[in-house]
Design a protein that fits this description.
2 copies of one chain form a homodimer. In chain A, helix 9 (157-182) crosses helix 10 (201-214) and helix 11 (278-297) runs antiparallel to helix 12 (304-317). In chain A, 55% of the residues are buried. Chain A has 12 helices and 21 strands. Chain A has helices at residues 5-12, 27-33, 60-64, 73-76, 79-85, 90-104, 120-133, 147-153, 157-182, 201-214, 278-297, 304-317, and strands at residues 16-21, 41-46, 52-55, 69-72, 111-119, 138-140, 185-187, 190-192, 217-218, 224-227, 249-254, 257-258, 267-273, 339-340, 347-350, 366-369, 372-375, 380-383, 386-390, 396-398, 407-408. Chain A is elongated. In chain A, the strands form 7 sheets. Chain A has a 6-stranded mixed β-sheet. A 4-stranded mixed β-sheet of chain A has the order 10-11-13-21, covered by helices on one side. Chain A has 2 domains: 2-151, Creatinase/prolidase N-terminal domain (Creatine Amidinohydrolase, Chain A, domain 1); 154-408, Creatine Amidinohydrolase (Alpha-Beta Complex), CATH 3.90.230.10. At the A-B interface, helix 3, helix 5, helix 6, strand 5 and helix 7 of A face helix 3, helix 5, helix 6, strand 5 and helix 7 of B.
Chain lengths: 412, 412
């Protein structure tokens, strides 16, 4: 949580954070600012002090809306001055400006943690140029467990409410989608509209985008709505021109966020329109049983990856191949059990074996539970996913309820 | 253009590009891949060779859809192997994997240009760790004029068509918005719905989001729809709870992109509902005259910043204060004339004085023309913006036509 940030910075030996980029679609920055139309900014957070947000003068009102302590670049560190000093070299001018800012903030010989999402090319050039001007600064990067990402790992009650609200929006849209599909009839086993034209995945996705937008959600990473063989490949997002054939599995994985890059939700249901074969029903029931068992099994202070092992164990017992037995399989349980989510759709904790994650589950964490079985060669796949939180008592709570129904009826 | 990339890399002495991040919402990557659901990838482009895209196995189908030469991390450089080598240290494992990839590609002692948009903290850590493993590699960053951004500066005819298509969508949504506003009546000078409740900016923005989503556009940086005093601050995006008062200027600046982070459009109109004061009409006419003059004046092989000077000159002649006379003004012409756009909403060329831009206009460039006059103290602001391209003959073409009408009638 944000209130733990100073302690975490202390533990990691970080004196200050330098968060760069916009105040939207930029998780590390939005964590401090909320979502605002500030397109280019820096936030300096010194350990033990409140953060300060730098803004360009045209965005002064938007910066002020963050409620943070703010400081105008132009009023305090006008770029014209630095361009003169740098003989018109923009990179050097920007670096000189950071030098003055870091010096005035007293961190010109300190350990500064780098944060934010932005253009890597410009960031590399600027960081290198500032390093040359301030050789005693130690910039600190981190692959997965930076101070900020460690703080973000435990959600405050307010953050959980944001995610819960996105869960409500997400499941409403999933309900709209189910109603839309069920309101149509099939012709020659293909779902068609009132004029008899096939309904395409592209059309369904357009409806989903519209429903999300109406409810104030963004869909920055698109939606997985894949059928048949494609449903057998976990991250295949589906082909817009494909038709909806009855009896084939549809994997519908939807992960929208608050408009402007706020908190995400992540949710999957698998549907068959009209009917499902015995084989698919059996696989679905087995995935559902594992899903329910896992939701009931999480305990505080245990490693997330242990539940990936347990999931493999359960599937193995039912006779399925798993990624634990052979990491190269593409049929069976080929996936990992879940991942944290918040301002990023994928963030710590991770259950995956491949990620080398050591994450331990704790109250306040929010993560997905998404077992699945995949058979591209047989033309189907099944995944069931909910987003859950571990509450103060260490109990697991699904953040948005929605029925676990495999077969969606269609109009006769 | 992409076909010039090898030549530009040669000129800048860059042997290879390393583009990191997703194949969506990541301009440098999308430039090669198009928009696909590939959430974590690297693209290596060696000078004189076709690029190669690395993907995670679950995203193999999405990677294949790019049409590029692709290579699976797992099939070729399995992370398990590197985790073993690195004793479970994920950062070190990832760095060792890059070491092998760069070595196999023959660029382990070369100049590698960094590109892409991603988490700065992880990128800093990884780049530093790879540098330590490959001390003879020279990583190259660039503040604004990297090889890739230089190539992106000149649009291919296909790219211009993408932007033109977004222009069509954008102006359709602006038309929808005008129709929506004009279809309502006012009560006590405030626009109201059929039940007599005031229409808020938040409602208008929700409609705009819905119309954009329906047409397949994303709105990642929100929309500026600001009224009165807020319209007098160029980047104030407006307050959701504000009402629409007749006679006040509304600055409506809309900059959506193709869903998933494709090509942008950027467009502004200023409206007064019902009527406009003489003062506002005069300022509007002066801004419009400058807009028209500037659109007609651009010539190939001239500096974009010279047109910023010319715009200041024209406004000065009409008696307005300009940013050229005093860079700290907040009233008058406080803005810069325009900026390039493409896969970024703001990219080279830039006309601004502050940016130190040396950009020269050339055929194939796409940029905005957006003069404005701002009077927050008087409670109004005016901006008129179109996106234009310079064609092969050096002629300027506005990419989406839309009327320049200040007063929008409302229902009686």
């Amino acid at each position: 949580m944000k209130k733990d940030l100073d302690r975490i910075m202390q533990k990691q030996g970080i004196d200050a954070l330098w968060v760069n980029g916009a105040a939207q679609n930029n998780p590390d920055m939005v964590y401090f600012t909320g979502i605002h139309h500030v397109s280019s900014a820096d936030l300096i957070k010194i350990r033990g002090q409140e953060p300060v947000l730098f803004y360009n003068s045209m965005e002064r009102e938007e910066a002020a809306k963050t409620g943070l302590q703010v400081m105008g670049y132009e009023e305090n560190y006008p770029i014209r001055k630095y361009l003169q000093l740098a003989n018109g070299n923009t990179l050097q001018a920007v670096a000189l400006r950071y030098k003055d800012i870091f010096t005035d903030f007293g961190v010109n010989e300190k350990k500064i943690g780098i944060a934010g999402k932005n253009d890597l090319c410009a960031a590399y050039a600027v960081t290198k140029a500032v390093q040359e001007l301030l050789p005693k600064v130690e910039f600190v990067g981190c692959f997965m467990e930076s101070a900020l990402k460690t703080a973000r790992l435990i959600k405050s009650p307010d953050e959980v409410e944001h995610i819960r609200r996105m869960g409500r929006i997400t499941t409403e849209v999933v309900g709209n989608t189910a109603d839309f599909l069920s309101s149509h009839a099939a012709k020659q086993n293909i779902l068609v509209d009132d004029k008899g034209s096939p309904i395409t995945i592209g059309l369904v996705k357009a409806m989903i985008r519209r429903w999300l937008a109406e409810k104030g959600a963004d869909n920055p990473e698109d939606t997985i709505f894949s059928i048949g063989r494609d449903a057998g490949i976990p991250h295949s997002s589906g082909n817009d021109q494909d038709y909806l054939e009855l009896g084939k599995t549809i994997v519908f994985d939807i992960f929208p966020c608050e408009a402007g890059g706020g908190y995400f939700y992540d949710f999957t249901r698998t549907w068959c329109l009209g009917h499902a074969s015995d084989e698919i029903q059996k696989v679905y029931q087995d995935v559902f049983a594992v899903h329910q068992k896992m939701v009931d099994s999480f305990k505080a202070n245990t490693a997330f990856r242990d539940y990936q092992s347990e999931t493999c164990h359960l599937f193995r017992e039912s006779g399925y191949l798993t990624i634990e037995d052979d990491p190269e399989i593409t049929e069976g349980y080929v996936h990992s059990l879940g991942h944290g989510l918040g301002l990023d759709v994928h963030e710590n904790p991770f259950s995956g074996m491949g990620s080398g994650s050591q994450d331990v589950l704790e109250p306040g964490m929010v993560f997905t539970v998404e077992p699945g079985l995949y058979y591209p060669s047989k033309g189907f796949g099944v995944r069931i996913e909910d987003t859950v939180t571990m509450n103060e008592q260490g109990k697991i709570e699904i953040l948005a309820d929605f029925p676990y129904q495999l077969v969606l009826p269609v109009r006769e």
